[in-house]
Design goal:
- Helix 2 (38-48) links the parallel strand 2 and strand 3 (53-55).
- 30% of the residues lie in helices and 21% in strands.
- The chain has two domains: 8-221 and 360-386, Rossmann fold, CATH 3.40.50; 227-355, no CATH class.
- It has eleven helices and 13 strands.
- The chain is globular, with a radius of gyration of 22 Å.
- The strands form three sheets. The protein has a seven-stranded mixed β-sheet with strand order 3-2-1-4-5-7-6, with helices on both faces. A four-stranded antiparallel β-sheet has the order 11-10-12-13. Strands 8-9 form a two-stranded antiparallel ribbon.
- It is an alpha/beta fold.
């Protein structure tokens, strides 16, 4: 069945390069987009236009800046204070704490009788356990107090692209909207509700549990694309390492990792692995930098090259020919599900930061097709009936 030309309208907060917009697709109409980062916003404008883009701190946005009545709001608020690698400040941190001024906009829109009927938050899975679960409980309380029912799913991008990237999605729907029974289950599912999601639910009060929804979606079709399929032979953004640079990288591997390389040499076909440099302790307890490789045809989770995180490298093994280099910016974009005509920043670190800090496009599409679009279309039907 063909999709409607205009499924719904939306606001995109913490928009980055517009990857949520790419996942929602052309049948949705973006009314407003916002991001604090000028470099990311430049990429957003180059790919999507700047007509609806407001660059600046979410704290400075007022409801009068938000046009019309949006059916839906998306917010990929900063993860640094919620991630395992962060400082642990949680929702009280300067970055992840920007959830609160965003949520104030939602509640202020409610006072004006124009809050979105559907709201989705995206963040790292550490959100579920931050401050022993208190931060996630606070998010659920915010949804409830604003008149929303809510539920959370964890989706790993590896279901859609060769990229290990599990992320948390919290979907809230206003109490005025009827929810079709095929969008949820009476209990958790193994597919979308990890142990951490279930534990977070168990920590909720009975009142919050009464507004909880176990969202359900069909399992996606088996992914066919391998990481090796995304590799550029002659990347424009980065050069291959010299032989001595590759040898130095191999020298940083433990025996376990070198055994993986030796096995790849004997595989009888070209093998492409990914490497992250990590600080480990040796037998004497001294910190030492190690290169850790994986050859499972799935890239490690992209991380932004900031705060001490290393940038991902690739190792191409073709028989006894071994080459290495940093992953190219186009390859990072492909891992995020972006098409090759998506315009990336020219500077390597800016492009890597843009992609490594985004949301995977086909993950958004799956969530939109099976939960967000049915909810929004139902809410528009209700609104028209009440008009």
């Amino acid at each position: 069945m063909d999709k409607p030309h205009n499924i719904g309208t939306y606001y995109e907060f913490f928009a980055g390069g517009g990857m949520a917009r790419a996942g929602l697709g052309d049948a949705w109409q973006c009314l407003f987009a916002n991001d604090f980062d000028h470099k990311k916003s430049k990429a957003y404008a180059e790919n999507w236009g700047k007509e609806h883009l407001k660059v600046g701190d979410v704290r400075a946005i007022k409801t009068e800046d938000l046009p019309k009545n949006a059916d839906f709001a998306w917010a990929s608020f900063p993860c640094q204070d919620l991630s395992l690698a962060g400082g642990g400040a949680g929702l009280k941190g300067d970055r992840s704490g920007t959830f609160w001024p965003f949520w104030k906009l939602i509640t202020d829109l409610g006072k004006e009788k124009r809050q979105p009927n559907v709201v989705t938050l995206e963040n790292v899975c550490g959100t579920l356990t931050s401050h022993n679960g208190k931060d996630f409980t606070a998010i659920c309380e915010a949804f409830q107090m604003a008149g929303y029912r809510f539920g959370a799913v964890v989706i790993d991008a590896a279901l859609f692209v060769p990229h290990s990237r599990p992320r948390l999605f919290v979907v809230g729907v206003h109490h005025s909207v009827s929810i079709s029974s095929d969008l949820y289950n009476s209990s958790a599912s193994n597919m979308w509700h990890t142990k951490s999601v279930r534990a977070a639910y168990d920590r909720l009060s009975d009142s919050l549990k009464s507004d909880w929804i176990w969202w359900d979606m069909p399992k996606p079709v088996q992914r066919e694309k391998r990481f090796a399929d995304l590799i550029e032979d002659n990347p424009a953004s980065i050069n291959w390492h010299s032989k001595s640079e590759t040898e130095r990288l191999l020298s940083m591997m433990t025996k376990v990792n070198m055994d993986k390389v030796e096995a790849a040499k004997k595989a009888g076909c070209r093998m492409v692995g990914t490497i992250y440099k990590r600080t480990r302790r040796d037998a004497e307890g001294n910190k030492i930098q190690r290169a850790e490789v994986r050859f499972d045809d799935v890239a490690g989770c992209l991380r932004t090259p900031a705060g001490g995180s290393s940038r991902q490298l690739i190792l191409v093994v073709d028989g006894y020919d071994v080459k290495s280099r940093l992953i190219s910016t186009r390859e990072t974009a492909r891992l995020m599900g972006l098409p090759d005509d998506y315009l990336l920043p020219e500077k390597y670190n800016e492009a890597y930061h843009l992609t490594g800090d985004g949301v995977v496009v086909p993950v958004v599409r799956h969530l939109a097709e099976h939960i967000l679009e049915p909810l929004v279309m139902q809410s528009r039907h209700i609104d028209r009936s009440a008009a």
